[in-house]
Structure prediction request, 301 residues.
Amino acid sequence: AQPAPVVRRLSHEEAVNPAGHVVEGGRYLVDPEDLQRGDNIRRDLRVGADFLETVRAHWVVKDIDVYVTLTGLVVLDGHRRHNAALALHLPAVPVRVVRVDDEAERIASQLMVNDEAEHCNSAERADAIQQLVLLGVPAQDLHRRGIRGEEVAAARAVASAPEAVRQAAVERPQIDLVGLGHLAELATDALEDSPVVAKAVADAIERPDQVEHIVARARAEAEEERILADKRAELEAQGIRAFEDAREWSLYDKGQRLDSLVDDHGEVLTEATHSSCPGHVAVVYPAVTWEGDQRKVTGTR
Prediction:
C-alpha cells in the first residue's frame, strides 16, 4: 500500500499544540525545530558525515513517526533523521502521527523498529528490555514482541556490567544480546578489573561468532584467579606476604624454601610449625587435577 499523501504543513502553533490539528495516521510537514526529541533506546544516533550528506542531497525521505502530547509532537522513531535535519537546518521534515498509549508501548515500538533496521546494538537492546521488565510488562507480552526468555536474563546481567562490556557491543554489533549477557555475567563473577575479563572482551570483539566458547574458557581462568586472590588475602591477613608467582619475588636470591630448613630439634619446617619469622613469605600456586584433558583447579598450595 502506498503511504497516505501529506495533508499540509503545520504551523509552529499547531505543532506545539497539536490536539485538534492532527489525526492519527496523518502525514504532515513540520519544522524539525518544532519536534520534541523524546527518549530513544539508542544511546548513539550515529549521525556520520555520509548520512548528513545523504540528507543534504535528498532531504528526509522516510517519515519521522511522532506521537501527540499536551506539549507538542514527540519523536518516536526517526531520531537519527531528526538530528540530521536539525544539524542541516532543514525547513521541514515529513512526519506521520502514530498512537502510543504508555511508556512500555513507546519502548517496545522503538525496539521493534530498530531491530528491523538493525540500528540497535546489543547493549541498547538490553537497556530497552530491562526498562520493559522494570515497567512490569508481563513475560507473555515480552515474548509476543519477539523477546526471548534468555534475552531477559541477559539484559539483567548487562544492566550492571562494566562499561568495557557494553563498549564491546558498540565496537562489534555482531555480538548478540545473549553473548553480551555471557560476557556481563563473567565480569560480574570475576575480580574487579580482572585481566581475564579484559582479554575475553577483546577476544569477543575480534571473534564475535565464538563468544560462548571464549566465555566458557575464561570462566575457568577467572575462577582460578579468584581462588588465588582469596588465598593471598587470607595469608596477608595473617601478616604473611603473599605472591602469585615466584617470578615476582626471587626465592633463590632472597629466601629459602621451608623444606630446606629445620627447627631447633632438627625437624623439617612445615607451614604449621613455621609460626613466625622475619621473612615469612608465601608464593601461592593453584592445586590442579586433570580429568582427561580438562584442567581443574581444586585449591591452592
Q: What stands out?
A: The longest strand covers residues 294-300.
